[in-house]
Amino acid sequence: MDILRFATAGSVDDGKSTLIGRLLFDSKAIFEDQLEAVERTSRDRGTEYTDLSLLTDGLRAEREQGITIDVAYRYFATPKRKFIIADTPGHIQYTRNMVTGASTADLAIVLIDARKGVLEQSRRHAFLTTLLRVPHLVLAVNKMDLVDYSQERFEEIREEFTSFAAKLNAPDLTFIPISALHGDNVVSRSESMPWYNGSSLLHHLEHVHIASDRNLVDVRFPVQYVIRPQRATDPALHDYRGYAGQVAGGVLKPGDEVMHLPSGLVTRIASIDTFDGPVEEAFAPMSVTLRLEDDIDISRGDMICRPNNQPHVAQELEAMICWMSDVTKLGPRTKLTIKHTTRTARALVRDLHYRLDVNTLHRDESAQSLGLNEIGRVSLRITQPLFVDDYARNRLTGGFILVDESTSNTVGAGMIVEAK
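^ Sulfate adenylyltransferase subunit 1, sequence as received from the core. Prediction below:
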């Protein structure tokens, strides 16, 4: 059974947490005591209905203000698929949290209040999901019960958003009219909207095709750890040397010819081991241990790939950065630590080309720095070569984080646009 990771986004009070609560409730994915706690809290707060948003808004400040601040992760499953949900905040000051939640998502649900239509925040989140290359985008027009389930209103919003999405790189866009509060078109089709011929939200989530979203062409295996049993009681394990890591792209099989970077030496895969035993093939995002036919000096941060299909080996990068620090700003000459796959190096910001206004998509080329939650394009100089791909080609080998050297805090997330 495969896993679909999806993130919810949208403006404040559009009903993201309520939608997730409804999904969990209607798919029987919550326990009785959880439901009783939510019902009790709802009564204490004086609401006339069971506030399902309390299932995901776990912070006290979130419950008091009725907003989402942190990224809340929830897990549930149906007979067809497992799901990991990232409930991301809607406020502009929590853009970094939204970027974190959407960075690993296969699909994003952008909620829109049917009464308010496409807001600035809706556009911002749609843009961020396409910047992060989330392959599938669902526009859920919520609170349809408050506009009398009007088909005309739904079509207006669809038309407005479609014209905006033409500026974005949104390969798969789906529109679904819903009412999270009453459960219309969330888990099952709604009788209140007979004019809607599409599937319910859960049906779409269960059947959206994600297998082809992974890069199965470019073999990329960043080495995370070298396994050498020191006290092996089994004589067969005395000479065991395995390279553990997560497959970041392509398909690996025993007997395949592979190349080690940075040495450039070529060998073949002897076997692929997992916790459950040997396997005949490995692909993203499986975590495996490779055994090679030849002894090569390989350590953490190295890369295994195909001889005729190698990543860029680069020390100069052009990247889009989302700045996440409220203490410091990012500008030319800033020195940071860069973490890319399993490799860590030092980086210097050589130039800030522009700051991007995520509301208008305008490029401010006069910007001197990036502040909290701002996004811009920069040039980086790295102290040692990184094995990278463009983010558009591979999100795992095309993404990185930036760390403050003095505090060890993560201060930025980057997407590689070009490697030099």
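The CA atoms of residues 59 and 100 lie 18 Å apart.
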